[in-house]
Amino acid sequence: MRVTRMLTMLGVALSAPLEATLAQATASGREPVLLRLHPRVGDTLHTRLEQQTETSGSQGASSALPRPMTTSVVLSARTIVQTSRATTTTVLTIVDSADVHSSDTRAAAMSAKAERTLLGQRLVLQLAEDGSVQSARDERGVAVARDVAEAMAAMPPVFPHRAVSVGERWEREMPLPAGGPFGARGSAHVRADFRFDSLGRRGQLAYVSMRGQIVPDGQTLGLQLTGNVSGAMRVDRERGWMTDSRYSILIKSIVTPPSTTGMPPMHFVTKVTQHLRTMDKR
Q1: CB 234, CB 243: distance < 8 Å
Q2: What mean pLDDT comes out for the span 108-114?
């Protein structure tokens, strides 16, 4: 009996540093971890989206168009987790406030309409574990446009489809920001390269960075698009949600009028910056 007790105590003594070593290895990122969307049912997440879009342009070699137009959007919303299964999550997102402004006085009516449309919006979204929108509908069950769904989801499809270690990379393709107050969409998408930078708070927080290029979907008559994207995000692995992200998008476009018009090509530069924060229920 004494020998058995001594062996048990020895096993405990040996397992303690082993468990600490494994925990330390996981926290340092040497062991692969899953980064996925998997929040708890009943959670209410408060999201604040701040986005600014600035567009400037020129026509011909040196003729500048009127001063750059700036559009700013600030949204505050609640996301209520209704179901959370192995590979999908269903949430109800409610827009509590919407503030849309434009430096172009002619766009005042459009900004006011955007605010009215967004305020009080209630969408039921089904999200995959990588963050992509699988389906979106209003509370009556009517499907909504994908542009609106992706903007309301506040969760771009960034998570990898496998466990990753710190320092690993993966590629994803994402749509450009939706049109209207959320930015400028063209016939192109983003081919992004993500990097798992580090773990924090004993493995609870994951930090990810991203760089990407804008890739045309195909030939669009009279339109050429190029650009790049960069950003960083923080993922709370315990609650299964992205709690902070910052993106910067630069889009360069050339619009060539039909030759019969005799007009020179128009060059546009669009800069989009976005900050998304998710807070606990207050």
Answers
A1: yes
A2: 85
Q: Helix H segments across 154-278?
A: none
Distance of CA 259 to the CA centre of its chain: 40
Q: What is the dihedral of CA 88, 89, 90, 94, to 10 degrees?
A: -140
Q: Which two tokens stand for residue 262?
A: 């005799």
- Per-residue model confidence (pLDDT) at position 54: 93
Q: Is 62 exposed, middle or buried (0-12, 13-18, 19+ CB in 10 A)?
A: exposed
**Does the pLDDT at position 16 exceed 80?**
no
**Residue 276, pLDDT score:** 92
**Whether 279 contacts 48, CB under 8 Å:** yes
CA dist 76 and 45 (Å) reads 11
Q: Please choose, from the candidates 239, 245, 250, 251, the residue with its C-alpha nearest in 3D space to the C-alpha of residue 281.
A: 239
Compute the average pLDDT of residues 216-221.
75
Listed residue (230, 227, 231) closest to 268, CA to CA = 227
Integer Cα distance of 10 and 156 in angstroms: 49
The whole-angstrom separation of Cα 133 and Cα 150 is 7
- 154: CB partners within 8 A, 6+ apart: 47, 49, 77, 79, 93, 276, 278
